[in-house]
Design goal:
Elements: H1 3-6, H2 10-13, H3 20-47, H4 52-64, E1 76-78, H5 84-94, H6 97-115, H7 127-149, H8 158-163, H9 165-173, H10 176-194, H11 207-222, H12 234-237, H13 252-277, H14 287-303, E2 310-312, H15 313-321, H16 328-343, H17 353-367, H18 370-379, H19 381-396, H20 399-418, E3 421-426, E4 433-441, H21 446-454, E5 462-472, H22 474-488, E6 496-498
Parallel strand pairs: 4-5, 5-6
Antiparallel strand pairs: 1-2, 3-4
Helix pairs in contact: 3-4, 3-11, 3-15, 3-16, 3-17, 4-14, 4-16, 6-13, 6-14, 7-17, 7-19, 7-20, 10-11, 10-17, 13-14, 13-15, 18-19, 19-20, 21-22
Organism: Embleya hyalina
GO biological process, one term: transmembrane transport
Subcellular location: Membrane
């Protein structure tokens, strides 16, 4: 057992002594994470087309349940901007009651994958696909929330959201109320961008909270005609799924949505865990246990009819930077969210929707990996192409299909990169011509192999040596047999194929 483990609180570890300094750091960090999480939980819920309280429910479960479970000790879970687009599409297509079925089933799949020790395999997903997924989500999120900043209903499709922006801006310029709402949203974005340049004492207040608080204060003072958050209370918002709703899982479309939730939520959580591990020197993440912790949280969120959860890098980074030492900080942040939802839910009703839209536009911009794209373009243009195609496919088609297209491209690129083959022709002028094949002969390189063999003279005997091949797939083998049969039919000596290693020189 290492030193950090010995200092974990007895409540959470079941052994060891509580150090006052650790608890003090964890308490302070939990307040910081709570202040960061509060506007994001509400904003993600509103952008997803569900009651604001459901975002708080997911944040509470992420703290009180997932926060207690083993896996990654310092990363924080809750509703994430990365799933906003997918949740919105699911709610629009299937309705809010079926959201619980989708989230619960995705959580059970995560538990199963964790039990089968598949968590580590998510690290094998192409980084370009993940970055492209986040970029596509970011583009759709930005486009959709720009409409919300103007208190305007956004089109349903991702491509329609982007192409409709010029008309939306033109309509906003002609409407006083839309201009007021857009100004609040733009001011929120400005505060988020400029907050880091303020003196350190001022930055004690997290930027999202400060931006929303300032926008809310301006709205209360100036009283512009802008839309506010509708508050129902926790009891009115929570809608557990009925048993009859699970019969909808027989539909192919709903199953595809569940798989998309599972894949994206798991990948985002485990990639976040890897990023958080680089921020601290404490205990490393157990990916399988973390996947099970996320699964347990999503299962409970599904039972409550709430939003899906993932590990969220913004909250996790704030937790580490605030000095958290143990998982007590993330559990306490869930306690503060619960107290706020139980005691002060009416406080949400004064927040302008445009302010939350501004927070999510800023979050969407951070999802677009421009620096990573530039780096990939300089060194790995194939990976950069996968990133761009994945993002464009998500915008143009849908989340699930876009990710599948990205994964397919990554597999094809990997197969192409690993299927190098050489065809060396040796012609001594007399006797048979020798063709030596080395490398991996797959169908992707079949045109190159056939071009080289078909260019050989038709009136000479030929020997094909395949001892240098590490792999020969069925397509190549069949094509080579067909070529040999055609060449042998020309009336010359039949093609000889040597598939065994050639003997070395005599000693």
């Amino acid at each position: 057992m290492n030193a950090p483990e010995r200092r974990w609180p007895t409540l959470l570890r079941g052994r060891g002594n509580v150090e006052t300094s650790d608890l003090r750091h964890d308490f302070t960090a939990s307040l910081v994470v709570f202040l960061v999480a509060l506007p994001l939980c509400v904003g993600v819920a509103v952008a997803s087309g569900v009651p604001a309280e459901l975002g708080l429910v997911t944040g509470i479960v992420g703290g009180l349940l997932t926060g207690l479970l083993p896996g990654s000790s310092l990363q924080v879970s809750g509703p994430a901007a990365g799933l906003t687009v997918l949740v919105y599409e699911a709610v629009q297509e299937y309705g809010l009651p079926l959201l619980g079925v989708i989230v619960l089933t995705a959580g059970l799949l995560q538990l199963l994958m964790g039990a089968l020790r598949l968590g580590r395999w998510f690290r094998a997903i192409s980084v370009a696909v993940v970055e492209g997924m986040l970029a596509g989500i970011g583009l759709v999120l930005i486009a959709g929330q720009l409409y919300s900043m103007a208190d305007t209903k956004a089109p349903s499709g991702g491509l329609e959201k982007i192409t409709g922006l010029p008309d939306m801006l033109f309509d906003t310029a002609r409407s006083g109320s839309a201009q007021a709402a857009f100004a609040l949203g733009a001011g929120t974005i400005a505060v988020l961008v400029l907050w880091r340049r303020l003196p350190a004492p001022a930055r004690i207040v997290p930027a999202p909270l400060a931006a929303v608080a300032l926008a809310t204060s301006a709205s209360m003072l100036l009283r512009p005609p802008v839309a506010k958050i509708e508050v129902q209370g926790l009891q009115g918002a929570v809608q557990p799924p009925d048993v009859a709703d699970f019969g909808e899982l027989a539909g192919v479309g709903l199953i595809g949505t569940v798989l998309a939730f599972t894949l994206i939520a798991s990948a985002e959580s485990l990639f976040s865990a890897a990023a958080v591990d680089r921020l601290h020197d404490g205990q490393r993440t157990d990916y399988d246990k973390e996947l099970m912790a996320q699964g347990a949280g999503n299962t409970l969120c599904g039972v409550l009819g709430a939003l899906p959860m993932t590990a969220v890098i913004v909250r996790s980074a704030a937790n580490v930077q605030a000095g958290a030492k143990t998982k007590a900080s993330r559990v306490l942040h869930g306690v503060w969210l619960l107290l706020f939802a139980a005691l002060l839910p009416a406080a949400l009703g004064v927040i302008p929707l445009a302010a939350l839209a501004g927070v999510l536009v800023h979050a969407g911009c951070k999802l677009i990996p421009l620096a990573a794209l530039r780096q990939l373009w300089r060194g790995h243009r194939g990976e950069a192409l996968i990133l761009v195609v994945t993002a464009v496919a998500i915008v143009a088609v849908s989340m699930f299909e876009g990710v599948l297209i990205g994964l397919a491209l990554a597999v094809v690129k990997t197969a192409w990169d690993t299927s190098h083959v050489r065809v060396d022709v040796i012609d001594k002028g007399a006797g048979p011509i020798q063709a030596h094949l080395t490398g991996n002969a797959t169908f992707l390189r079949l045109p190159k192999i056939l071009d080289a063999l078909e260019a050989l003279p038709q009136d000479r005997p030929i020997e094909v040596h395949m001892s240098g091949l590490r792999h020969l797939d069925h397509a190549c083998r069949t094509s080579l047999e067909n070529w040999a049969a055609r060449h042998s039919a020309e009336g010359v000596e039949p093609v000889r194929v040597n598939a065994r290693p050639e003997p070395g020189p005599a000693g």
